[in-house]
Amino acid sequence: MVAALFLFYNTVHMSRINILYIITKPELGGAQLQLLTLLRGLEKERYNIFLFTAEEGPLLNDFRAINGVRVRTSRFLAPPVNPFKDLCALFEIRRFIGENNITIVHTHSSKAGIVGRLAARWAGVENIFHTVHGWSFNDYQPWPVRRMYIFLERFAACFPGGLIVVSDFDRRKGIAERIGKESGYRLIRYGIDFFSFRVPYPGVREEFGWDDSVLVIGNISCFKPQKAPLDFIKFAFLLKQKTGNRKIKFLLVGDGILRRRIEKLVSVLGLEDDVVLSGWRRDIPRILAGMDIVVLTSLWEGLPISVLEAMVSSLPVVATDTGGISEVVVEGITGYLVKPRDMPDMCGKVSLLLNEEQMRKKIGSQARKSLGSIYTVEYMIHQYQELYRRGQVSD
After folding, report:
1. Within this chain, do residues 225 and 137 fall inside the same structural domain, yes or no?
2. Domain hosting residue 139, numbered range
3. Is 162 a domain residue?
4. 166/189 Cα distance (integer angstroms)
5. What is the pLDDT of residues 131-177, one digit of tens each?
6. Nearest to 229 by CA among 207, 257, 248
7. CB 388 within 8 Å of CB 381
8. What is the pTM of this model?
9. Short-list 332, 333, 293, CA closest to 313
10. Rounded Cα–Cα distance for residues 173 and 33 (Å)
11. What is the spatial distance between Cα 161 and Cα 336, in angstroms, rounded to a whole number?
12. What is the Cβ-side half-sphere exposure of residue 69, based on CA atoms within 13 angstroms?
């Protein structure tokens, strides 16, 4: 009887699809949070799920806590380009694929996307998917660096499987750079848990010492050059100069390599009483409930999840027109767009919203309604499982 049960268990276990996810670092970013959501929602009776990632990161324990997910960490898989470490990671992933009889490899983030796909192809995997959360190349890179990344993306896109993009902008950008075939792309938008952003969260403002008369302008991002957080501080200074309103406060949520420069600029501009750096927060729905307007100052993007979360929270968004943001932020309807680095224009757009409470509420309400059902977690997971079932992007 015991032997029969053991045989049954192994038969069921072996009939599942062995799928390996690879992401560079389990940090608090849009790619990582979406992968976390995907792994939590996958049908565990259909897949044996493996994750290969760096050995440090604030979301590592969250991934380990998911029932049915086996996590393998590596000291070699790290964000900066390092030929020695990258080669070691390549060999590690190749060996891991062979040892666990992996049949599908799905990579996320730029470094993991290149190294992971190379390892998967070397191991003979036929179903190799990569989700583009914004391309590895951008217009702010030196020309040789940009061309190198485009070459690597073209090479990796030749492998069987396909490319998943989170915005149509990235699909068009990839095709324009001759990365893969047009038929090799599939648009699967981010999934947001609408319910968690619908619950009222009292006491948020009190945490920072603000009453209900204070107007809070927020920004949620990593403190790195791509997100241009220093521009947010410059914008805050311009807005305070323009309005002279002491009841306006600025909440910058996140952390990263630019933190010291941000703190210095806040001090130089005399904004110590106006700007709060909260650090990373794990209660984003609660934090958004305490904001009136969300601002994004990025120089380049795929489709930032912070914008979608703000819209689901019924907040108006003023963002730089980068990546796929214009696919969700419609001028004057669900928010406003400005050119990157144009903080005077951003100041003007935000001033309009500050002066009109009814306009803020109307735009926020329209923003939430505009996302509809295609940005739900359920729809995202359904699309990915259908993709795995077919084994390729193109029909």
Report:
1. no
2. 2-191+376-390
3. yes
4. 5
5. 999 999 999 999 999 999 999 999 999 988 899 999 999 999 999 99
6. 257
7. no
8. 0.90
9. 293
10. 24
11. 37
12. 26
Contacts with 273 (C-beta within 8 Å, 6 or more apart), sequence order: none
| Segment 106-121, tens digit of pLDDT | 999 889 999 999 999 9
CA distance 371 to 168: 15
Low-confidence ranges of the chain (pLDDT < 50): 2-13
In-domain check, residue 395: no
Residues 241, 92 share a domain = no
Flag whether 174 is in a domain: yes
Are 66 and 141 found together in one domain? Answer: yes
Residue showing tokens 């590895």:
136
Sign of CA dihedral 162, 303, 358, 252: positive
Sign of the CA dihedral with 52 first, then 57, 59, and 64 last: positive
Query: Treating both helix axes as pointing N-terminal to C-terminal, what angle do 30-41 and 305-312 enclose, rounded to 10 degrees?
Result: 70
Strand partners, 250: 217, 275
Alpha helices, DSSP H, located in 100-181: 110-122, 143-156, 168-176
Q: Tell me how far apart the alpha carbons of residues 14 and 33 are, in angstroms, rounded to a whole number.
A: 29
> Do 55 and 7 fall into the same domain?
yes
**Quick count: other Cβ atoms within 10 Å of Cβ 73?**
16
| 19, 99: one domain | yes
CB 206 within 8 A of CB 199: no
**Cα 294 versus chain centre, distance:** 16
In whole angstroms, how far apart are CA 228 and each of 100, 210, 217, 233, 326?
41, 26, 16, 9, 18
**Please, are residues 288 and 197 in contact by the beta-carbon 8 Å criterion?**
yes
Q: pLDDT value at position 128? A: 96
Structure tokens at 326: 């214009």
Domain count, the chain: 2
Query: Could you identify the residue written with the tokens 């699967």?
Result: 188
